[in-house]
Amino acid sequence: MGREFRTLRDMDGRLVVRDPSISDAIKHMQETILKIRSLGKRVVVVAPPPASNFDIGLCLERKASGKPTFGADNGCQIAVSDYHRYHARVLEFLARLPARRTSV
Question: Residues 58-82, buried b or exposed e (16+ Cβ, 10 A)?
Fold first, then answer.
C-alpha cells in the first residue's frame, strides 16, 4: 500500500505505528461485520463508484452547458480499465474479503 497511510496497533498496551496491509484491513473488516451482525443488522459491502483522473461532475456540468470538456474522452465516460486502475487497492481488498450471503 502507499506511504500516505499509517495504522496504529495496540501491542501489549502500547500504540505502534505500522504500514497498512490488506490482510489487516480484511481481518478488522470481518471483525466489524461480525459485530454489526451480532446486533441483528445486515451488512452490505459495496465497491466505490466509477472514478478516474478527472472530475466527472465538472465534466458532466460542462457537457450539459455545451462547453468543451477537458481530461475525459468520449463525453465524460470512464473506461472500465481506468476504473480498475484508479481503485486497484480497494478492488483488491474487496476481492479478498470473504463473502457471506444469507437469505433475506
Answer: ebeebeeeeeebeebeeebebeeeb
